[in-house]
């Protein structure tokens, strides 16, 4: 059916496009707004957007006489999930935003996409079987990182290193989402995690930065884009796309965010990347594709719960 095609193919591609453009929005904001300040603002917008969405969904469920999850055990899981996921997300997005102060949107997009490779690797510590082709993708990704990030004399820029750390944090966030998503409503969990992220980022902002409306207002467009579209709309599109679809196909489409980030950085920001860096991008993109092709059940589920952030 045409509606199924749109939901299973157009929705995840649109989500990847939104997340890819978000790297450009974050890069623009990084020129004038410090990392904690930007994340405090974007998470506040995302929280309010998702809160309104939760209220609308709850009202719709009540109208249809659907069962609404509640109870002390459910609230405890929601609170714990919000805190754990929120702290992981806040750390990841802070590192990503700091990295974007000195690296390009395209490179940040590809390095962040390493979470797709890291998830099955980290699954080893959780006694999950990893196929041989995944190890090949890890080796390919490491080679791609070398061409993309390592400059003359075996040096790596501080921005690239920050974004690489953020990929590890996003991996932890994915594993946490996998644990809590079977216990609580996904949109409610997202709303809770952005509330925690807002609190965490606000504390960091007040302790280490000097926020002002003079620097915040020029970046308001980026904040609204990342808060509403990247965090709210794209996350919802991902949920709708995953329902009843082939998880491998959806994950492959979602991983296109790295490609869109590179294209958006080149077209909108006129970022210049050398042939060596483009070759690294190609190798990393091949790595994330290989990591997804053999995915089965649990591994697929872990990757598909990933959110851009953005």
Summarize the structure.
Helix content is 77%, strand content 1%. With 310 residues, the protein is mostly helical. The protein has one domain.
What does this structure look like?
It contains 14 helices and 2 strands; from the N terminus they run H-H-H-H-H-H-E-E-H-H-H-H-H-H-H-H. The protein has about 300 residues and is mostly helical. It has one domain. Strand 1 and strand 2 form a beta hairpin. Helix 2 packs antiparallel against helix 3, helix 2 runs antiparallel to helix 8 and helix 3 crosses helix 8. It is globular. It starts with a helix and ends in a 6-residue tail after the last helix. The C terminus is likely disordered.
Helix content: over 70%
* Distance between the first and last residues' Cα: 31 Å
Query: Quick one: how many beta strands?
Result: 2
SSE ordering: HHHHHHEEHHHHHHHH
The largest β sheet comes out as:
2 strands, antiparallel
Class computed from helices, strands and strand pairing: mainly alpha
Number of helices: 14
Shape category: globular
Query: Widest sheet: strand order?
Result: 1-2
* Poorly predicted ranges: 306-310
Q: Any idea how many domains? A: 1
Strand coverage percent: under 5%
* Mean pLDDT reading: 81
Radius of gyration: 19 Å
Organism: Candidatus Avidehalobacter gallistercoris
Membrane topology: Multi-pass membrane protein
Subcellular location: Cell membrane
Pfam family, one: EamA
């Amino acid at each position: 059916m045409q509606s199924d095609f749109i939901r299973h193919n157009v929705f995840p591609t649109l989500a990847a496009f939104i997340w890819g453009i978000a790297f450009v929005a974050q890069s623009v904001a990084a020129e004038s707004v410090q990392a904690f300040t930007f994340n405090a603002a974007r998470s506040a917008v995302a929280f309010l957007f998702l809160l309104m969405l939760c209220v609308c969904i709850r009202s719709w469920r009540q109208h249809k006489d659907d069962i609404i999850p509640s109870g002390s055990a459910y609230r405890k899981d929601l609170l714990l999930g919000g805190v754990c996921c929120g702290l992981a997300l806040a750390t990841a997005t802070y590192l990503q935003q700091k990295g974007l102060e000195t690296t390009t949107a395209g490179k940040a997009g590809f390095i962040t996409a390493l979470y797709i490779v890291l998830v099955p690797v980290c699954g080893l510590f959780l006694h999950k079987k990893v196929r041989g082709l995944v190890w090949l993708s890890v080796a390919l990704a490491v080679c791609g990182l070398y061409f993309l990030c390592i400059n003359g004399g075996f040096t790596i820029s501080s921005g690239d290193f920050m974004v690489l750390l953020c990929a590890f944090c996003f991996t932890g966030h994915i594993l946490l989402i996998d644990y809590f998503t079977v216990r609580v409503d996904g949109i409610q969990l997202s709303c809770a995690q952005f509330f925690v992220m807002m609190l965490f980022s606000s504390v960091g902002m007040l302790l280490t930065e000097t926020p002002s409306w003079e620097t915040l207002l020029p970046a308001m467009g980026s904040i609204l884009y990342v808060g509403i579209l990247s965090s709210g709309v794209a996350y919802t599109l991902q949920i709708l796309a995953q329902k009843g679809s082939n998880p491998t196909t959806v994950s492959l489409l979602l991983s296109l965010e790295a490609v869109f980030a590179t294209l958006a950085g080149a077209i909108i920001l006129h970022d210049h990347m050398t042939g060596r860096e483009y070759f690294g991008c190609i190798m990393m993109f091949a790595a994330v594709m290989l990591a997804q092709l053999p995915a089965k059940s649990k591994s697929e589920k872990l990757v598909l719960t990933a959110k851009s952030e953005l």
